[in-house]
Amino acid sequence: MDTFAALAHGMAVAIQPMNLLYALIGVFLGTAVGVLPGIGPALTVALLLPVTYKLDPGGSLIMFAGIYYGGMYGGSTTAILINTPGESASMATALEGNKMAKAGRGGPALATSAIGSFVAGTIATIGLAFLAPWLVDFAVRFGPEDYFALMCVAFVTVSATFGDSPIRGLTSLFIGLTLGLVGIDKLTGQARLAFGVPELLDGVEVTTLAVGLFAVGEALYVASRRHHSEEKLEPVRGSLWMTKEDWKRSWKPWLRGTMFGFPIGALPAGGAEIPTFLSYSTEKRLTKHPEEFGKGAIEGVAGPEAANNASAAGTLVPLLTLGLPTSATAAMMLAGFQQYGLNPGPLLFAERPDLVWGLIASLFIANVMLLVLNLPLVGLWVRLLAIPQPWLYAGILVFATMGTIAAKPSVVELSMLAGFGVLGFLMRRFDFPIAPVVVGLILGPIAESQLRRALAISLGDPMTLLQSPISATLLALALIALLAPFVLKGLGRFKATED
């Protein structure tokens, strides 16, 4: 009953005119950037962080959540129309969706994608509303050593999940952890890694790092790959609506996709890619029309898209209850919370229930807005694809620079933005994941302060980290997650040598 009351209070916050406007701006921007290949929701939130610096925290976070949901919707449009997923999570959708578009059934493919996203997003948001308070009750019992162990799990899982190589992921994480050391040590008052530059005494701004790595780095990377063949646009032919047979073949995949997406998205090493491909392979196995798979089966669009959007709600569970980002966009949203001096976690539910429940309730509204926006505006999204890339990325560079100057006018800050942009370009060029850098910068100082607090309470005894059952379990999980990729790779090489 408490959850229903909290949700009703959150809905009263979410339907305030300004918050409705923020949600509408968020879902519109999210869908637009999801449609544009290469520009995902993480990049958009990163660009808007400095711009929203002085706005209302609740409205800004509602807008960021709208961008997240909208990006998941929009990524399917390009996946279906031109076989170019706007997000990696839309890759499974492209397998059957693009075949349907080429067969003149782009309309039903886009419709089942939009309606499936709405169904899955709504069910998963209900799951978020009821699961979050239970997790918060559990997390309230955490001591400093438990929080430190939880951060270790986050570091390892984020490093191992993003990108193909665990070593590259860990390298990216250590870059972020090193940047987190910059500034004045809160315990001793000594400057660390500031190199005599006064602007660095406050530490590295998360917004500057995020905008540099995501926006400037992406623009430089795209410019370096300028001369590539352009995708041919496939016009949407025939009816946009689904037939009775399409509805019959779609509703079960929508529900199954939700069951895959939400729980896996809520795991610390979840993400959206795993449930979308699990959903695709399940639908391929269960279908009554196996001959259509590979040629444009509607189940192959309905299931993965539902899983994709359900996982988006799932990733908000660890973010809001434990302060753990499990995707690049969740890391950007965590930066947004910190921008306003807010730390997601169990205390936020007690200190700012209006903000947290307003955010959760706004997700229901965002889902309805996205359904209304996506079906009639397909023609507009297709036209967005025709924007020349040089114009698009030149605009991104200008917007990134202006936003950084507005948030913190300083030559040092602009120089850091340029430096992080070059770092982002080099990381993309050599296939290093970018999200662990941001996670390291945000969570590194928190992990350090919790470790110091735990050691201070135990008078410097490091065994205190293993005396709590929660921290011992979490550290064991972190160790397993760290060693598992190397063990599996070693076994693979051993098997190959034997063969």
UniProtKB/TrEMBL annotation:
Residues forming coiled coils: none
Keywords on record: Membrane, Transmembrane, Transmembrane helix
Name of one Pfam family that matches: TctA
Bilayer-crossing regions: 20-49, 61-82, 109-135, 147-163, 170-188, 200-223, 316-335, 355-379, 391-410, 430-447, 468-488
Stretches assigned to the DUF112 domain: 20-438
Protein name: Tricarboxylic transport membrane protein
